[in-house]
Write a structure and sequence with these properties.
Serine Threonine Protein Phosphatase 5, Tetratricopeptide repeat, Arc Repressor Mutant, subunit A, 3 domains, 3-stranded antiparallel sheet, Rpn6_C_helix
């Protein structure tokens, strides 16, 4: 089976978008356009991070092309990849504080970095809540080292979005945890991942395409 037949139609779209970034990157390198080379390189790295392909991020950064454009811009995306791989909320926050300009000045990158952080927060909350049937929201906030209001708001969002099965008893300051509803989690997760990757790569593709016409 060829690599192309191994992909679904949506997967192939993701693969094609990264290929476009790579081709754009090579074009900018050929004409020694440092500014746009770095921008597209960052989009390439972000695509890999969003696809959970951290190993590829390291290969790109430490490869010939990555070394040529080494600097704080690329360093910031590598730090994001490392924090994301460790699933460490604290490490992710440290990266955001260390590289505010590199991760915040480009609205496209800032938006997706924010999404990565929110998903990581959700994953950490679900892991913390797993042993409990009832737990104080303040205790959860202490365990995850975030303000109570922030945790209460996030839990409310997760419940409303169907990402967590439970209710908030705000009068008592507790979270009541229900057993998860049985479902085909693998299928649902796969569908959701494909949708999110398509949105991400479409946005990055449009941004890179505009750069080529500047």
């Amino acid at each position: 089976m060829s690599i192309f037949t191994a992909f679904t139609k949506n997967n192939l779209a993701v693969f094609s978008r990264f290929s476009y970034f790579y081709e754009s990157f090579e074009s900018y390198c050929t004409v020694n356009d440092l500014r746009n080379s770095v921008i597209v390189l960052k989009y390439m790295l972000l695509c890999k991070i969003m696809s959970n392909e951290t190993g590829d991020v390291h290969s790109i950064v430490h490869g010939k092309a990555g070394v040529k454009f080494a600097g704080i811009e690329v360093e910031a995306l590598l730090a994001v990849a490392n924090a994301h791989k460790k699933r460490s909320l604290k490490s992710f926050e440290q990266v955001l504080h260390k590289y505010p300009a590199q991760l915040g000045n480009d609205p496209m990158i800032a938006s997706h970095i924010h999404d990565l952080y929110e998903k990581l927060l959700e994953q950490n909350l679900i892991r913390i809540l797993d042993p409990f049937s009832v737990v104080e929201i303040g205790h959860v906030a202490k365990l995850i080292d975030l303000p109570v209001d922030r945790i209460q708001t996030k839990l409310s969002e997760m419940i409303l979005d169907g990402k967590f099965n439970g209710i908030l008893d705000q009068g008592a300051g507790n979270l009541i945890v229900y057993d998860a509803v049985e479902e085909d989690a693998t299928y649902e997760a796969g569908i959701q991942t494909m949708k999110e990757l398509n949105i991400v790569t479409d946005c990055l593709y449009d941004k890179a395409r505009r750069l080529t016409h500047q």
